Each structure stands twice: as structure tokens, then as C-alpha cells.
Predict the 3D structure of the following.
Amino acid sequence: MGGFYSKSDPVSIYPMGEYTIDGARAALEAVLAPIGGLECIPRGSRVVIKANLVSAMKPDEAATTHPTLICALCDMLAERECSVVIGDSPGGLYNAAFVGRVYNVTGMHEAEAHGATLNSDYSQSTAEFPEGKVLHSFTYTSYLDKADHIINFCKLKSHGMMGMSCAAKNMFGVIPGIIKPEYHYRFPKYEDFADMIVDLDEYFHPTLSIADAVVGMEGNGPTAGTPKAMNCILASRSPHCLDTAAAELLGFTREELPILDAAYRRGLAPESFSELNLIGSLDPLRVKDFERVVERRSLEFTGNGKSGIKRLFGRIAGAILRTRPRLKADLCVGCGICKNICPAKAIVIKNGKARINKKTCIRCFCCQEFCPKSAMKVHRTALASLFHHEKKEKK
Ligand code: SF4
Ligand code: SF4
């Protein structure tokens, strides 16, 4: 594995309105044809489909890759005499009981009738990656070692920390669930976290990326948002070029998405959508009124300016304007999942409700991502909202 993507890798987009097995097969063939079909996966290969199985959620909740699309892809791979393993490491424990429940609820067992095996190897490996920009050693899910090729089959969603979750972000699922919060702690700055994700894509180098954007997620994503019809699928050899098209589809600029911006700074993504080598028509598929989590990145102030005044202003502005997790107490059932997953140990459960220590919170939004009751929201102060509104007016 290893290697680099090109910012000129073509991206293909194709309309798909509903999840039927025949429709999924036709759409997959159509979206892949202009980029060489499955020729990039030699016959007889051992393939891992790295799906998005973030949590035990039903397919119609739109947090996970839809099983119908995966089944159709498995049929196509079976015809190429490939062996197929489907896997992911959801947030939480990485063991047979926990992941088995995720397989059940997300409908992944359907893929077994299409020749695939669900990963049952829960061992972990460590990697040394001196070429990585920020990630030089890490722990990952060992089943990936058995793959000749990885197909990165993601879901297009809003994301509390990174703005958008699509192809590049999906590879964070190679990190065992219980360890994921540690990475937020290792890389608390959004720019570093984004570079860490790009490093993972560089290390594992999925041969093909496909995005399920038939019904994606908007709002309080990536798990507590609302399903949103997007009516298409996308495919590319490069996850970063695919994300460039997905960003345009939802109305994001590159600068608003830290992972895409990190890829651009490393020469792996085009500067803007206008430079993308796109095959297919994106215009009629543009998602109208896509609800973002928040305009978070535009409100980041690091306080790293050279002069003392600038640094002071940066720190004050950062404190006032930055977004934070906030509890909707009426929804909280005091289950403690957020407390256990919080990498900064910033949450305690008191009187049956979660409480966040603002001083130690690193704003990774793991609590927002994994709260099963959608009780954690991304909160923007009133002043930040005003600032955001003004920025929009000026656009
Ligand atoms: S905020 Fe969510 S995860 Fe945390 S204790 Fe409440 S219900 Fe559980
Ligand atoms: S409270 Fe939430 S956002 Fe803050 S560090 Fe903990 S998990 Fe991350």
C-alpha cells in the first residue's frame, strides 16, 4: 500500500433516486464506467469494502453506507472472482459483540447473500509511517492487511468537527473505535486533525472511493442529523477529488473544509471545483438549502499572530466566537457514553445528566457524534451567530 493521488484524478457523478438493487447496480455501472469501471481491481483480488458503519443505526437514518449499494457492488466484484470482506470500526468497542450489533442494525448481513463476508477479525496492528506529515505511528484494524485493494465506500454527511464527512474522512474508520478519541487528543487543532486524516488516506491508499449520496445527512451530523435526499452517487480513484465534487454539491468551499484544505495544501486536491476533472452533470443535482452543522471553521481564531495585540485579540475572539458542545438536558438520559468517549475527560455525569468542563474541552465533538439521544449539539454563541450572519451578508 502507499502512494499518492493526483489532483487531476477524474470524478464521476451519476443520478440515483432510490435504493433498489437493480437501480443500484445500474447506477454503479454508470458512475464507474467513465473512470475505467472496476478495471483498477484485478480479477481474483482480495477486496475490503471499507464502509461507513459509524454506529448501530438503520439504513434509513442515513448515517451509514446503504446496504443495497454495497450488495450491488459485491455482485460486480463477485463477477470479477474477487473475494470481498466488508468492515469498519464504529465508535465504541471493537469486538464481535459490539460490531456484530452494528452489522445487524445497518443491514450489512444482506451482503452475505451477494458473496461477501463481514469482517470478524478484531485484532489490531501498529504502523510506522515516517513519510506521514503528522501521523508517524498509529494503531489500526488488522483485517485491512489481508486486502489487495480497499474500496472506500462512504456516506455523504454533515460533520460537527470537520464540516463534511465524505471519502477522505471515511478512512478514520481504520482506527479501532475505542482508540479514536485518543487521536482527537493527539491532534486537537483542526488543521492537524485534518492532516492526520490525509495521512491515513495516503497510508492505506484506497484504490477506489465511492460516495453514497442518494440520501445523505444534514444538520447535526454525522450521526444525529436529518436524512437529506441528494439523489446521486460519486466515484473517483482519489478521495480528495471526490470530496471536491461533494463539497460543491453541498455548497461548501474548499477553505471551509479542513480535510479538503489539507489535501489541497499537499497538492492532492485541486484549488477549486472549477479545476476539477468532473465527468457527469453536477448542476441539476446541487443540494438546495443544505443545513450545515455550523459555520465553524470560519470562526476559528488561533491567536497565533506575531504581535502581542494580535495574539490577545485572537485569544479573546476565539473564546467568544468558537463553537462548543452544549447539552440539551431534556434529551440526556445520563447513559455516560459521552463521558467514556471524551478524550479530554471533560464530562462528568451529575444528577443523571452530562456536564461539560469548558476549560478542559478540546471541542473534538466526539460527544456530539456518539450521543445516542442527540442530546449534544454544536453550539454557537449569539455573538458568533451575528458574526456568521454578517459574513454571509458580505459574500
Ligand atoms: S449527553 Fe448523550 S451520551 Fe451523554 S449522558 Fe446524555 S444521553 Fe448519554
Ligand atoms: S466534551 Fe465533547 S467536545 Fe469536549 S473534549 Fe469531550 S468529547 Fe470532545
